[in-house]
Amino acid sequence: MHLPEALPKAELHLHIEGTLEPELAFALAARNGVDLPYADTEELRAAYLFSDLQSFLDLYYGLMAVLRTADDFTELADAYLARAARQGVRHAEIFFDPQAHTERGVPLGTVVEGLARALDRSEERHGVSTQLIMCFLRDRSAESAMETLRAAEPYLHHIVGVGLDSAEVGHPPSKFAEVYAAAGALGLRKVAHAGEEGPPAYVREALDVLGVERIDHGLRAMEDGELVERLVRERVPLTLCPLSNVRLRAVDVLEDHPLPSMMAAGLLVTVNSDDPAYFGGYVGDTFHAVHEALGIGQEQLRELARNSFLASFLDHDEDRRARYLAEVEAYTFD
Ligand code: HPA
Ligand code: ZN
C-alpha cells in the first residue's frame, strides 16, 4: 500500500481533545455517568456544522465533559495514536488544553499522567514517537495562564513546550508576553496559533513578543507581503490545517485553499489535521484531500512530509530526524 496517505510524516498541529470521536464520547459518557445533550452518535455528528471558530469551540469544550479520569485520557490518546500510525504518522507533537479540564474539576496531574501513559508506550505500540505541548486558552486571563504554567511544573518532564489556542480575535499574543517569558525561562519550546481568524499583526506579535518558533495556522499572513517575505527568510514553519479551515469557514472550499501559493512563495508549511474527529479527516486523509482538490503532486506531498520533520522539535535527537527524513526520501508512491 503506497498511497499518499501512507507517506511517512510528522503531525505538528493536533489537539488531542479534537480526536474525541462520537463513539468514544458516548462510551465514556456511559462509563462516567455524564448526560450528553444528543440522543446518539448520529445526532452528535449532525451537529458538526460550524459557522466559525467559536461555534466549533462551544461544541468542543462541551463534549469534553465526558473526559474525567486518567484512563479516559489514556484511551483517547491511544485511539489517536493507533489511527495516526495507520495514516503514516511517525512522530506526533500533541496539544492539550489543561484549563478546559481543570475548570471542570479534573486535576492537571490526572490529564498529564493519563496522556503520558499512552504517549510513553506509543513508540513500542504504534511506532509513533511523541511530544506533548500544553496550550493556554487565550480567551481566559493571562493570570490563569500563569497559574496553569506554575501548576504544570511538576510535570514538565512530560511537556516539550507551550502553545496558545481557543478564540483568537480580541486576544492578541501580547496578552501572554509574561507567561511565554516564564515558559522560555523553564526551557520550554514556544508555538502559538496566529492568523487563523486573527489579522497578520497577530502573527508578528507571536514572533516578536512571544518569541515563538512555529506559527500554528498563519493563514492570514498571506494578506501581508512583507510578513510573508520575513517568514520565508527566517524559515518560520506554519502548521496549516486545510480541512479545519474549510469546516470553520476560513476558506469556502478546499479548492480555494492558499496551500499551493504558500508553497510557491517558499514558506515552510506543513499539513496537519487540527481536530480530526470534528473536521472530517486525519492527517493522511488531509494529504489525500490536498492532492485531489489542490493538485498537490507526489513530489510536493514529499516536500510537505519533509517539512513536517524539519519543523518538528526533534533537535534533541537529530539521528531520529535523519532516519525519518530518509524514510520520506525512500518512499515510493504506488
Ligand atoms: N483554533 C483555536 N483553538 C482551537 C482549535 C483551533 O483550530 N482547535 C482546538 N482549539
Ligand atoms: Zn489548532
Structure description:
The chain has a single domain, classed as Alpha-Beta Barrel (TIM Barrel). It is 48% helix and 13% strand. It is built from 17 helices and 8 strands. An 8-stranded parallel sheet has the order 1-2-3-4-5-6-7-8. Bound molecules: hypoxanthine and zinc ion. Residues 13, 15, 165, 193, 216, 274 line the site of zinc ion.
Q: What are the defining features of this structure?
A:
single chain, 334 residues, alpha/beta, TIM Barrel, eight-stranded parallel beta sheet, binds hypoxanthine, binds zinc ion
Instruction: List ligands, each type once.
Output: hypoxanthine, zinc ion
Compute the number of helices.
17
Order of helical and strand elements: EHHHHEHHHEHEHEHEHEHHEHHHH
- How many runs of DSSP E, i.e. beta strands? 8
Uncertain stretches: none
* Largest sheet, spatial ordering of strands: 1-2-3-4-5-6-7-8
Helix content bin: 40-55%
Q: Count up the domains.
A: 1
Q: Which fold name corresponds to the CATH topology?
A: TIM Barrel
CATH first level: which class? Answer: Alpha Beta
* Dominant shape: globular
> Between the first and last Cα atoms, what is the distance in angstroms?
7 Å
Major sheet characteristics: 8 strands, parallel
The radius of gyration computed from the alpha-carbon positions, rounded to a whole number of angstroms, is 19 Å
What's the CATH superfamily, by name?
Metal-dependent hydrolases
What is the fold's blueprint, element by element?
Elements: E1 9-15, H1 22-32, H2 41-46, H3 53-63, H4 70-86, E2 89-96, H5 98-102, H6 108-120, H7 122-126, E3 129-137, H8 142-152, E4 161-165, H9 177-185, E5 189-194, H10 200-208, E6 214-217, H11 225-233, E7 238-240, H12 242-247, H13 259-264, E8 269-271, H14 276-279, H15 283-294, H16 298-310, H17 318-330
Parallel strand pairs: 1-2, 2-3, 3-4, 4-5, 5-6, 6-7, 7-8
This protein binds hypoxanthine and zinc ion.
